[in-house]
Amino acid sequence: MIISIASIRLGLGGKCLLDWALVFLQRKHIHKSFLAVFGVSLAVIDTVLTLFVTILHVHADGHVILLGLKLTRYHVCLLVQILGQVCHALQWPIVVVAGLDHFFTVTRRLQPTTGRTRLFVCLFASGLLWFLAALYVFLLSGFVPVMEDVSHNQIHQCWVFHTTQILQVATFLLLTLGCAVLHAGCSTRLLNYHPLKNQITDRSRAHSRRDVVHQALHIFLNTWAPLLFLLAVFLLLPVGIPAYLGLNAVWLCFLNSLLIAVVLCAVSQIQQDLAAAPPDSFCEWTFQCSSAEED
Hints:
Blueprint: E1 2-4, H1 5-25, H2 34-58, E2 63-66, E3 69-72, H3 73-106, H4 115-139, E4 157-159, E5 162-163, H5 165-193, H6 199-236, E6 241-242, H7 243-246, H8 249-268
Antiparallel strand pairs: 1-4, 2-3, 5-6
């Protein structure tokens, strides 16, 4: 897709403001999760790129001399395309790392670590992901920039790649969450119709796990239903999401809540004793489990 440099600057500026607004909203528990720390790194990178694009776009000559290098509007298009490819490559690794972070938190395996140690690990993981994604884009992905064959003074728009990774990630995690709900419901029905040796205890545990799964789904949908509707619209309509806008603070917050819901549902099927849910500025993960006799 072809987008004007003015629209790119406007999109990056809005994304940057939104990034920092959500960083401020999560300031109390930034050091407690990988996604919050990664969100800060994303806000910094978006800010630097926004300032660079703005300076080159408003400059009368269409170029700036920085450290002896002549930077032109060619570099605006090039950097936007590179950032888009890096964000595209980061989607699934972020899901994996954040999912493991939430899993270890819910299963109490990260409890002994101090806040400073956890922050250092999250910073290291964020930096490593950015580095590996950039390395992949430049060396392994076969990325070829698309540039207009005109003078840099005549460049007023850029070719921008679009991304489908957001829809793929959301669809996969929502299907996983749906499977957890179906599994919880089916396991409860099987225990109701097949007597076991420790029937009361097993039925009580099954009902408790089912309650956790159903309440987790309810909490998630109550908060993020509008965004799910918007994603469904993007999925049905032939509208591409610019790759440089695909990785943003709202998506990270949505991904954080969705991964928490998936991890809570998955862990509740394995063990009954859950630790406190990972920090979330949008969903309040509190559960009230009923017993089998009440049902």
